[in-house]
Amino acid sequence: LYSIVFYLGAGTLAGIAPFYTAAVTRADGKERERLERIGWMTVGLLATLTVPLVWFAPAWLKSFGLEPRLLEQGQGFTRALALTLIPMLGVVLYRTVLTAAERPKVFLKVTLAMLPLNALGNYVLMLGFGPVPAMGPTGAGVSTLLVATTSLVVLVVIARRASPSTLTESNTDPSSDRRGMLAVLRVGVPIGIATVAEVGIFLAATLYAATLGAADVAAHTLTLRTAGVAYAVPQALLQASMVRMARAESLRDAHAGHAVVASSLWLSTLFGIAIFALLAGSAEWLAARFFDGSDVGVTAARLALGLLILLGLTEFIIGPGSAAAGLLRGRKDTRAPMVYALVGHWAVGAPLGLYLCEVQGSGATGIWIGLAAGTLVTTILSLARLLGVRPTIS
After folding, report:
1. Residue 207 and residue 123: Cα distance in Å, rounded?
2. CB-CB contact of 126 with 77 (8 Å)
3. Measured distance between the N- and C-terminal CA atoms of the chain, rounded to whole angstroms
4. Per-residue model confidence as pLDDT tens digits over 1-23
5. Where are the domains of the chain?
6. Full DSSP string of 12-58
């Protein structure tokens, strides 16, 4: 639940990126501050809607037949995560702003600096240390809350030092902010829904895989963990493509726009080939190192070999699709890609995966064939949209 809510909020906040990139390109400091203010208004709106949903989750999840005692035990952790949404959405806002300003290294450094703090917080608050009592799972939630808040404070300080305020109460326009917020939401909400569609299909696949045999579950787990690492590459290309296209749009530079499209698609294809080759070449080695020599382990290793190759194929497909999605975001074209994600993953991928598992008995292999097919449909539709729609620049 937390993951779905968070990704919806993070995707919605991504709607500010093309506007902020345009302001950076024009060196418009006042517009940048206005957009940051709009970003905080959006964070407030999202937090108001999502925090209660997670906070009261143990109460309303009982209606789904979950064990009441288990829900009660996790209540402290759930409520800590609910509060964590507030600083985490703020962190996402500054990640979006820094990426749009082509300063992603700042966010990377802050994130890396927080990793040991998070590990220390988990150890102290979960297990107890000195006068600090052991809080168990609730301690992990509290640690996440503290680290997220610290990250946000650091990012706010960095942002304020980098761009001292130039706005006063007399030159702010609340009505302009409201209109700007609506414009951001029109771009951002479809991104949020598309993000949930993409993340949700993998969450659903994992829940379904848990109903299969032990070997299928183990093979799926290895493949999913590997996918989490591999997915970082197309996601980074998506962000870079969006920023460069938004810059070309703001300059109304047709030549730059065409160059961004060509370079983004070529780079995504080359990286896709490299990832496919890496996964296909190391699949046997990974499977052998991950599983033991038991009967279940041997079966899981054999399944994982095919799944990792399928993952490589999926990553090859998703590369151009992610680049296309980023380029379309740079044009503020997000509604059609949202529909493509829903159709590809949920109208094609999910039914196909279920058919292969339930009717053909393909197990985890059927799940990943469905995921690959859904990704292929989404990519084809996104590329058709990108190459078939005339850019707004001239």
Report:
1. 29
2. no
3. 44
4. 778 899 999 999 999 999 999 99
5. 1-172, 188-394
6. HHGGGHHHHHHHHHTT-HHHHHHHHHHHHHHHHHHHHHHHHHHHTHH
